[in-house]
């Protein structure tokens, strides 16, 4: 399945494993790369830029295929040393970067000078158009169904993807709500050049999260997420559990961030992924968990998606044309 995305980024399949905090580590990223898709190490999962350099080297020991690094840029009282992480990426010889969060314009000249292609993750058409204008090579457009931060416009992928692709000239990666071949085919039909999956890749054998988390994703339906930080205009979609329910309840009474800060601390979410204590903190999951019913290897997942997508296109969709021809 060749698309503008596979051609431009040198991968076999139009499937991306985007950056995920505490999840985008060497074992998963290398497995994605070896399966012919594009995986991203999450830079800020590594405590220091030096640790990121080591994680990149560790990934290279596991694969000789292309992979990238995600650098999420967010406002913070004490921001990470973004310039140092950026330099670690460049000096490690990475050729693909996924940016997310704030506008990447300050980082683009450095990446471009190093011959690095940049995919920027957006949650709205206006931000995607701006990203194209400042010079990114592709955008990943996140529909409202996604895990993590879907923006504040609440536009689902069925509308957001074609709304973006009709405005942009660069490749578009569809993200949010995609977990199988049907989502891949639908995204291509809507004008995208590939798909990005987070929750689905989190629920694979090579994913570094606790097995209890994977089992819970399989058990959950599309209804088992919560939207937190809505009243703070920083909406995030997370898995439904005791902590996210408490956050929503506190917000419903009117709250400032300090009122829920102890519940949403990143260290608590990390404990969920590492220890498998599902109520230790909040953890991200998308609505597509309702479409996930197994924990395959990455290789099996990618092969299944591509094979089934080709079957849908050549079989079910083509049959509509054949039937129309017969009726004519």
From TrEMBL:
Key words of the record: Flavoprotein, FMN, Monooxygenase, Oxidoreductase
Record-level Gene Ontology MF annotations: monooxygenase activity
Domain of life (superkingdom): Bacteria
Gene3D superfamilies: Aldolase class I (3.20.20.70)
Pfam families, per database record: NMO
InterPro entries assigned to the protein according to its UniProt record, in alphabetical order: Aldolase_TIM, NMO
KW Protein transport (keyword) present: no
Entries under PANTHER family matching the protein: 2-NITROPROPANE DIOXYGENASE, 2-NITROPROPANE DIOXYGENASE-LIKE PROTEIN
Protein name: Nitronate monooxygenase
